[in-house]
Amino acid sequence: MKQVEIKLEGEFIALCNLLKLAAVAGSAGQGKHMVAAGEVTVDGQPESRKTAKIRAGQRVDCLGTRITVIGMD
């Protein structure tokens, strides 16, 4: 499984934008389609909210990629 770490610049990031930033999706729109197709889990649970607020400490899995979200120190 590919591992990607993303540093947050604010309090949260929308799930579809996170998928784009991590290069799992080519665009936020494609990320929304992945979520709608049931290809995304957040902290091990299926996620159906395309713009779910992802915060530091959460883990997102999609298409063989694990994205770990870390906060700014």
What report would you give on this structure?
The chain is an alpha+beta fold and 73 residues long. It has a single domain, classed as Structural Genomics Hypothetical 15.5 Kd Protein In mrcA-pckA Intergenic Region, Chain A (Roll). The protein is built from two helices and seven strands. The strands form two sheets. It has a five-stranded mixed sheet with strand order 1-7-6-3-4, covered by helices on one side. Strands 2-5 form a two-stranded antiparallel sheet. Helix 1 crosses helix 2 (28-36). The chain is globular and about 35 Å long.
Our Rg estimate from Cα atoms comes to: 11 Å
How many angstroms does the end-to-end distance come to?
27 Å
Give the mean pLDDT. Answer: 96
Strand order, largest beta sheet? 1-7-6-3-4
Helix content: 10-25%
Largest sheet: 5 strands, mixed
CATH topology: Structural Genomics Hypothetical 15.5 Kd Protein In mrcA-pckA Intergenic Region, Chain A
Low-confidence stretches: none
Alpha plus pi helix count: 2
Q: Which word captures the global form?
A: globular
CATH architecture: Roll
> What's the order of the H and E elements?
EEHHEEEEE
Q: Could you give the count of β-strands?
A: 7
Keywords:
single chain; two-stranded antiparallel ribbon; 73 residues; Structural Genomics Hypothetical 15.5 Kd Protein In mrcA-pckA Intergenic Region, Chain A; alpha+beta; 2 helices; 5-stranded mixed sheet; globular
